[in-house]
Structure formats: C-alpha cells, structure tokens
C-alpha cells in the first residue's frame, strides 16, 4: 500500500511541477507587503477553487485563505484533520536578482521565500486533491498573511483557522541546507521575539554648555551598553537570550544637546519562563541609569511571537517521511534552534505540530537580502514531504487518535 501511495504521489508531483513552477514565478513577480496581500489572496483562492476542494474560505484574519480537502477513503468522515501552513507576505527590499521573474514592484520582493512556501503548499493541494480516495481524513491548507510583522497568525487563529485541527506542519526554505535536504529538531525551533521602547527625557542645552543639560544621548548610550550585561552577567549563560537595541534616535542639529532620545529593540529567548522576567530586568536597568544621571524615562514592553516549540511526535513523523523520501543522509538533525522568530508558534498553541527547514542550496544568499531567491529546485522536495506527511498522519490511526 505505502509503495503504491509513494508512486502515486511522486507521479502526481511530476505532473504538476511545471505548473507549480509557473505559479512560483507569478508569485515572485507580484509581491505584496504585510497586511496588503489582497491580490495574492484573491489569486490563491482562485487557484484553490480550480482544484475542486470541498471548501475555500477567503478573508480569514484579513487576507488569509483556507482550503479544505476531505478524503473519501474508508473512515475518512471520522478521521483527523491535518493542517499545512504557508505565509504570503513580502519584504520592503529592492530586488537585485537578474532573473526573468524578477519583482515587478519597486522596493518590494519575496526576500524570505514566501513565494516558494505558497507554491509548495499549492502544489501539495493539487497533488492531494487528485488522491482524495486515499485520504482517511481532512487536510486543511492555510495561507497566512502578515508573518513578517508578527500578527497574521494570531488573527488567523482568532478567526477559526485552527478549529478542529488535530496537528499542523509548516516548512521554511533554508539557504544553509542543500536542495533535497531537510532540517528538523524537537523542542525549541525558533525563539520568542518581543519588542521594547524607551523614551529618555533629559534637558536640552547648547553643545558648548553640557553642564546645563541632562544629556539623553549619554543616558541612552549607557543604557544600550548596560542592557548587554543582562545576557553576559545576570542570566545563566546556558540559557540563550539576545537583547538588541536596534534604533537610537536623538537630536536634529550639530550644536544642540537634545532634550529627548528614543531607543527601540527586541528581546529573544528560548525559555518561556525566562521570557516572563525580561520586562522587569530591562526596566530595572533603565530606571537605575536614568536615576543616576537625572533623567526621566518611559518604558514599554510588548510580548510578541512566542517560542516555536516542535512536538516530538510530529518531528518523528517528518523524520520518517524524510528518510523514506530523501534518504537518511538528507535528514539533518539540527543541533541548535534559531534565535530568529516565526509566528507559526501561534498555531502550536492550538494543536501539536512542527516546522522543518527545506534546503534551497548552500550557495544561495541569506534570507532577507536583495539577492535571495527560493528557486525552483526545492519545489518537488517540499511538495513531496508535505504530501507524504499529510497522508501518513491521516493513515496512522494510533498517532492521530491519541499518540500526541
């Protein structure tokens, strides 16, 4: 049975790959920023409807789209629901690639590979819709807007994207892996990401009279340096945490000490309990320095994306599928998580699941750069893992019924 299913899936992938490749090129040429994915959303919905899915829902959490495919194999009506997710938004970056399908929009490009993520999920939907008689349950295809600004997943889930879902998976194209490889790990896969804003209120003065001022630039500089001691001297070094002051704004003239400065940045953790303590730790440093240097301050801290925690059972299933499909040597166990963040973590608060990395080539330039391109070569591997993973989850009754 499994051999025949494998052959059926691979045969369908070969059939659909030329069209899926064209879809990726179309998506790459027509990127849209977060919360602006209207045309992308409409195009995806139209494409899904061509596949004769049981339901295509638009306007989920904004510009989100959800397609549902119900299998017709014996027991499918009472079977589980497995979800696959892809993100849709692009980045405000001017593309520098010299390729036929280069972005048509100035200053906007798919520099994180979401064109590839969408095309892969559409390809999986196309393949699985042709194999409906083999499916013992329901597959939900989730196309999510606004991943890059963190907020899209939360809106999707608030609008019912995860209702009735038993498990979920997603992929992310990764330049550190060769095409045909996947990277997996259980537990923390990506860090949480929170933001902070600090407004320092001093007293302005002539640059030649610093004794008349309460210089917010000096205060801000000391705060910036002191915040780094949280990770190096206060928190256990085996507990990863990154505090980054990414913006520092003050003043408008060469010869004027400003009266105000603003600092903005992020805090990233892998331990949810440590994460809870970070606002107090940061504000203590800010308050102490401002008090010592006679400045006032305003401090705000916003909890953003939580830790992406991969469920061991779903990771194990991805590993099994990967070994069978790609070969054991091409399933890479990741030694460490990334301190980057992914709002796929929000879905994992509603159902067990996992994200894996899909190799796009070690020579490919890094994510979020003007020359990044997901490429066409990874598509059949991503589609293959998605399809086999969905089939295996629906097929494996003990896992679906209570193994999680």
UniProtKB/TrEMBL annotation:
Cofactor info, note text: The Mn(2+) ion enhances activity.
Q: Does the keyword Manganese apply?
A: yes
GO BP annotations of the record are: diaminopimelate biosynthetic process
Species whose genome carries this gene: Chthonomonas calidirosea (strain DSM 23976 / ICMP 18418 / T49)
- Cite a single GO MF annotation: metal ion binding
State the source organism's domain of life: Bacteria
Protein name in the entry: Amidohydrolase
Question: Which cofactors, if any, are listed as required?
Answer: Mn(2+)
Domain Peptidase M20 dimerisation, first and last residues per copy: 195-285
Which Enzyme Commission numbers does its entry carry? 3.5.1.-
Root EC class: hydrolase
Give the residues the record marks as binding Mn(2+): 112, 114, 148, 172, 368
Keywords recorded for this protein, A-Z: Hydrolase, Manganese, Metal-binding
């Amino acid at each position: 049975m499994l051999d025949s299913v494998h052959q059926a899936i691979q045969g369908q992938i070969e059939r659909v790959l030329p069209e899926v490749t064209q879809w990726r090129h179309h998506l790459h040429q027509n990127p849209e920023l977060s919360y602006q994915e209207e045309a992308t959303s409409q195009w995806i919905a139209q494409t899904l409807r061509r596949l004769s899915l049981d339901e295509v829902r638009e306007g989920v959490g904004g510009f989100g789209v959800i397609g549902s495919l119900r299998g017709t194999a014996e027991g499918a009506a009472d079977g589980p629901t497995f979800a696959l997710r892809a993100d849709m938004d692009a980045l405000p970056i001017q593309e520098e690639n010299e390729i036929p399908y280069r972005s048509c929009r100035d200053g906007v490009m798919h520099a994180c590979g979401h064109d590839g993520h969408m095309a892969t999920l559409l390809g999986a939907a196309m393949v699985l819709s042709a194999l409906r008689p083999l499916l013992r349950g329901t597959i939900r295809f989730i196309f999510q807007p606004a991943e890059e600004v963190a907020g899209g997943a939360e809106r999707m889930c608030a609008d019912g994207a995860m209702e009735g879902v038993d498990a979920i998976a997603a992929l992310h194209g990764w330049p550190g892996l060769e095409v045909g490889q996947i990277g997996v790990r259980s537990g923390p896969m990506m860090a949480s990401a929170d933001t902070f804003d600090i407004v320092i209120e001093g007293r302005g003065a002539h640059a030649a009279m610093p004794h008349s001022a309460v210089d917010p630039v000096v205060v801000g500089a000391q705060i910036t340096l002191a915040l780094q001691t949280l990770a190096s001297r206060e928190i256990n070094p085996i507990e990863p945490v990154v505090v980054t002051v990414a913006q520092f704004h003050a003043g408008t003239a060469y010869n004027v000490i400003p009266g105000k400065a603003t600092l903005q940045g992020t805090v990233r953790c892998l331990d949810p309990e440590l994460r809870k303590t970070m606002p107090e730790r940061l504000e203590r440093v800010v308050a102490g320095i401002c008090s010592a240097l006679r400045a006032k301050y305003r401090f705000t801290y916003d909890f953003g994306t939580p830790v992406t925690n991969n469920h061991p059972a779903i990771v194990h299933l991805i590993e099994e599928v990967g070994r069978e499909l790609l070969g054991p040597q091409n399933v890479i166990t990741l030694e460490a998580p990334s301190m980057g963040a992914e709002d796929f973590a929000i879905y994992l608060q509603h159902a067990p699941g996992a994200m894996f990395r899909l190799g796009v080539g070690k020579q490919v330039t890094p994510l979020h750069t003007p020359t990044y391109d997901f490429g066409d070569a990874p598509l059949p591997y991503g589609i293959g893992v998605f399809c086999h993973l969905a089939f295996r989850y629906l097929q494996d009754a003990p896992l679906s019924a209570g193994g999680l």
